[in-house]
Amino acid sequence: MKRFYLVMMMALAASGQAAADVPLRIVTFNAEILTAPGIRAGRLEKFRWDVARKAQFERVAAVVEALNPDVLNLVEVTSKEGVDYLVKILHEKGLTDYRGYHVDNNDGFTSMDVALISKIAPDEVEGQAIRTFYSDRDDPTWRQSYRGAGRGGNNNTGIARHAVYLLTVGGHKLGFLGLHLKSNPSSDSANAKRTAQAEVAKRILHQEIVGRGYLPIVLGDINDYDPDVPDRDETRSTQTEVLRTLKNFDTQHEGPELENIAKLIPRQADRYTSVWDRNENGVRDPYDALTMIDHILLPKALMPYVRRVFIFHSVALETSDHRAVVVDLMLPSL
Predict the structure, then answer these.
(1) Furthest-apart CA pair in the chain: how many Å?
(2) CA proximity to 36, closest of 111, 94, 93, 106
(3) CA-to-CA distance for 327 and 262, rounded, in angstroms?
């Protein structure tokens, strides 16, 4: 494994002699229970009526139109129909390069999925462009045991909401793990479960991304704070090692393999992706909580090619309670 990183970094360093001519914009965005009109999905609903659902899709499409990502990691879409409906709107806008890729995740309660909308066709593995790895049995690979908080006893969990997709961009083999981990970083029981999920994520990275010769990129709604990157709200701090576990997923390799791009955002005040509307009035009030729980983690080998990082805050609460994280890369031609 250590040799793999060494070879990849040497190859990238050598290629840096050539013109940096492959732009790549990566975005992760939690669209908050994005449910297609006429579809009965999970037990949680943002809007019950189709007229409101269609309006939400229009607003999400406007966010995509404004950001124009090459790769969009879409969190909390609830079905393939939702992905197809969003792509249809984008095509109507003239953004016909976009294709949608969906795989049913395994959250039977919410039906929330992690999906891909991309201008770049994924590399298929056994005929699949996007995959998920989950077992509801006592599986030592895709499940992890953990001790619940208080009298929670012994438990085990998998990652019900995630997706893996592999892309080759200008000769660079990039493997994406889109995550939506257990929510509520203030809950001891949720923190214990999310910590176990991070261990499963490490195995996915090893086996399905690095093991296939791809550089790993972790992104999505991780639902935790990064202790190494201060965000806007200094009153909140992580109670787990989830972010550090993900960044240092290969313990045989010295130091963390991944870095949080949020550290490149110069203003600490801009480092927030989640808006907790405390009184649920649909309006940003001064006492609402603004925290950073959505992240993009890049391999160190790619950090020299980052040109810009920002969080797109121009999203109305009626669209989503999250904000999109954006990173621009200029990859050297291979």
Answers:
(1) 59
(2) 111
(3) 9
The single-letter code of the amino acid at 44 is L
Element spanning 327, H or E: strand 324-332
* 199-213 tens-digit pLDDT: 999 999 999 999 999
3-state SS, 177-228, equals EEEECCCCCCCHHHHHHHHHHHHHHHHHHHHHHHHHCCEEEEEEECCCCCCC
Question: What is the DSSP-derived secondary structure letter of residue 59?
Answer: H
The DSSP annotation for 222-252 comes to: --S--TTS--S-TT---SS-HHHHHHT--TT
Domain range enclosing 231: 21-329
Total structural domains within the chain: 1
Residue whose C-alpha is closest to residue 233's, from 205, 284, 273? 273
Q: Is residue 273 part of a domain?
A: yes
CATH number, position 206: 3.60.10.10
Classify residue 99: in a domain, yes or no: yes
234-270 pLDDT per residue, tens: 888 999 999 999 999 998 888 999 999 999 999 999 9
Parallel/antiparallel/unpaired status of strands 172-180 and 215-221: parallel
Q: Is the pTM of this model over 0.85?
A: yes
Paired tokens of 43: 């037990």
In a domain, 268, yes or no: yes
- Return the amino acid letter for 321: D
Q: Which residue has the tokens 């990566």?
A: 26
